[in-house]
Write a structure and sequence with these properties.
The protein has 295 residues and is α/β, with parallel strands linked by helices. Helix content is 35%, strand content 19%. The longest helix has 16 residues. It starts with 10 loop residues before the first strand and ends in a 16-residue tail after the last strand.
């Protein structure tokens, strides 16, 4: 269902003045709208929704959610209706940002709920109520993270990677992508996640999906929290784009690259370490105009 729209994924090697090898897996090149990790997360969920005969896709996300944008496009492409439960009822009467505009243009109905009610998104009773209210809807969790998403994300790596790379780095939002990568990695590889959110609660979420221990997570480069930025981060992204012709956004991939380059400069990685960076897409986030340390 998804594979026919996929484009060739390339690996981009970056020449550095440090004694490590750095390669970027350009998942952002998969598709203009269903790009990066979202392609892998949505793949088996949409196959399952089609198999079960659902007519509508219902999912959750914040105002800047890559998942919301990708799900809206995929739903329209494959003939589903779609609805997004959006965190923040105060946004209903504001001008939509580029992510929400794109979702709306793709035919997604947007339902804005209070931040308090949004926290119920994983509550069984709340989801049962949604299923009653929208009986023809296949429900995908926030960020697309569920067992089927992790199954898809295991396909990000291939057998050649097991001997080619020592460390694999990726941005982390809900934990599904890194869980899939951990599950498909070789035991001797280390998977290093860069959280886009502040706090260590994501560690517990990831541990629900994998029993492996060859991974670690840092929030040292989240710049204060989700969708928050600093002048240093924005300047870094601009420099990387100019130096390597590599597009980044400041919510996920930019922070991950920022963290990796900082660690390299501090000699965190052993000499000649072979590092693979997963570019997880989400480039519609480049259109967002987010102020420094926006809440």
């Amino acid at each position: 269902m998804f594979d026919p729209i996929a484009q060739t994924i390339s690996d981009q090697h970056l020449n550095l003045d440090y004694s490590v090898q750095l390669t970027v897996r350009r998942l952002d090149q998969i598709h203009p709208n269903i790009s990066g990790n979202k392609f892998f997360k949505l793949k088996y969920n949409f196959i399952e929704a089609q198999r079960l005969g659902f007519k509508k896709i219902l999912t959750f996300g914040g105002a800047y959610s890559n998942h919301i944008a990708a799900t809206a496009y995929a739903a329209q492409f494959f003939g589903f209706e779609s609805m997004g439960i959006i965190r923040g009822e105060e946004l209903a009467n504001k001008t939509y940002n580029p992510t929400l505009k794109l979702a709306q243009q793709m035919g997604m109905d947007l339902k804005f709920v209070s931040r308090e009610n949004y926290k119920l998104k994983q509550d069984p009773e709340f989801n049962q109520q949604l299923q009653v209210e929208y009986p023809d809807s296949y429900i995908i969790p926030e960020g697309g993270t569920n067992g089927l998403a992790i199954q898809g994300c295991q396909e990000i790596l291939n057998p050649h990677d097991y001997t080619q790379y020592d460390v694999i780095c990726c941005a982390v939002g809900t934990g599904g992508t890194i869980a899939g990568i951990i599950e498909s990695s070789a035991p001797k590889q280390h998977i290093l996640g860069f959280s886009a959110l502040k706090g260590d609660f994501l560690k517990q979420d990831i541990q629900q999906w994998t029993q492996r221990t060859n991974w670690s997570l840092t929030d040292a480069y989240c710049c204060g929290g989700y969708a928050k930025t600093t002048p240093e981060l924005l300047c870094f992204i601009e420099n990387i784009e100019q130096q390597f012709q590599l597009p980044l956004e400041h919510i996920y991939t930019g922070k991950m690259f920022y963290g990796v380059f900082d660690l390299i400069s501090k000699h965190y990685f052993a000499e000649n370490t072979r590092i693979l960076l997963i570019h997880s897409g989400g480039l519609q986030g480049r259109l967002q105009k987010i102020s420094i340390n926006q809440k």
